[in-house]
Structure to design on (396 residues):
């Protein structure tokens, strides 16, 4: 699964700060998550469509945001060096096709945002991944032994059909990639990439010891779900290929493994609890402003419009404060079933007061605030009225 940091980076390229994702809602590029449009608010969509295809909020008729052509050329050069150039005359916006010229393969039309992410000329990609005949034969032998051979004159690429010869059943046509995966002659039984149950059990023992076993009666092939048993967490259904090759295990064990990894890597069960990580995400989520603490010289990442104004007020009046110093784990669960976290905006050290800077309070944010306030009565919300009382200009 693509990490949330990469999704945020791709969003920045495709939408230039107009769209951000709510990290807690992300479960994979093909599953719907919650996005926020700077002008139109929240909507649900798959990250693949929003990041790669440039889709935006339904109320936004077309992708209005563009990247300056000089910036596009700079990013294309960083990714492809001098192999690729953009025809400036054809460029309008990052999400609309433009003409590119490859110095070896000529011109083609594609979406600039994809080129900035690494997409190259189709023929260059084809040549890069085209296998020579020795590699083809080696892969066929690994899967089928001497039972299957390829008719060399019919091979063009792994994505185009070629003629294969089964020693017993004769010729048939197939995609080389499928044959590498274990598919054989249509008349040969068990032609569905089936690994014998004995081999599956051996691989399970090799990978997990006696921790995970498979219910033999439910097993048909690696690409069809079967029933597995976890010694500690009980049964679950999963594709055998995922359990054997990707390390997929019981959902509860996966959650524990993830928390353990996060503890080793970030020192907390949720990366959002790590101040450095959360600030890095915050800087990419939406338009941000960097302020300097008057006393410590620390860089403070401020979001939206009110946060930098309040920091300016505190700096000008030499009021001692800590900016987003601590993350609290709440008993409130997210849609994904994880415990949500809460990070107050600032702490006034001399007054011993936690402060949350908030205009509009979404339902989920309201729940977290109510929990935090009940646990810490020395907390306040600074909204429009508070800013006016401090003579802070709301609209500049």
């Amino acid at each position: 699964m693509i990490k949330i940091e990469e999704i945020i980076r791709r969003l920045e390229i495709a939408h230039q700060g107009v769209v951000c994702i709510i990290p807690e809602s992300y479960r994979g590029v093909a599953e719907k998550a919650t996005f926020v449009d700077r002008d139109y608010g929240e909507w649900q969509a798959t990250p693949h469509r929003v990041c790669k295809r440039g889709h935006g909020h339904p109320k936004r008729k077309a992708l209005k945001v563009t990247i300056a052509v000089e910036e596009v050329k700079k990013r294309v050069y960083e990714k492809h060096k001098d192999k690729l150039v953009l025809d400036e005359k054809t460029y309008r916006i990052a999400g609309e096709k433009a003409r590119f010229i490859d110095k070896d393969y000529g011109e083609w039309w594609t979406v600039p945002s994809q080129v900035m992410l690494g997409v190259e000329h189709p023929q260059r990609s084809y040549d890069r991944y085209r296998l020579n005949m020795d590699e083809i034969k080696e892969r066929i032998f690994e899967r089928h032994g001497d039972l299957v051979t390829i008719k060399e004159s019919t091979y063009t690429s792994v994505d185009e059909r070629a003629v294969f010869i089964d020693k017993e059943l004769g010729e048939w046509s197939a995609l080389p990639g499928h044959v590498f995966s274990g598919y054989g002659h249509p008349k040969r039984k068990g032609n569905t990439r089936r690994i014998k149950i004995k081999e599956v059990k051996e691989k399970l023992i090799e990978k997990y010891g006696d921790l995970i076993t498979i219910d033999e009666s439910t097993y048909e092939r690696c690409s069809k779900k079967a029933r597995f048993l976890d010694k500690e967490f009980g049964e679950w259904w999963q594709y055998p290929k995922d359990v054997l090759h990707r390390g997929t295990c019981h959902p509860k064990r996966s959650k524990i493994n993830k928390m353990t990894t996060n503890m080793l890597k970030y020192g907390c069960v949720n990366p959002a609890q790590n101040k450095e990580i959360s600030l890095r995400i915050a800087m990419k989520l939406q338009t941000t402003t960097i302020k300097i603490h008057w006393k410590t010289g620390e860089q403070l990442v401020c979001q939206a419009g009110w946060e930098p104004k309040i920091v300016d007020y505190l700096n000008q009046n030499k009021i001692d404060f800590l900016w987003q110093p601590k993350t609290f784990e709440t008993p409130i669960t997210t849609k994904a079933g994880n415990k949500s976290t809460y990070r107050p905006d600032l702490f006034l050290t001399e007054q011993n007061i936690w402060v949350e800077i908030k205009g509009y309070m979404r339902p989920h944010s309201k729940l977290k605030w109510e929990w935090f306030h009940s646990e810490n009565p020395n907390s306040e919300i600074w909204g429009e009225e508070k800013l006016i009382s401090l003579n802070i200009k709301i609209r500049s």
Summary: The chain has five domains: 4-51, 69-127, 130-180, 197-254, 271-389. The longest strand covers residues 328-333. The CA atoms of residues 42 and 131 lie 46 Å apart.
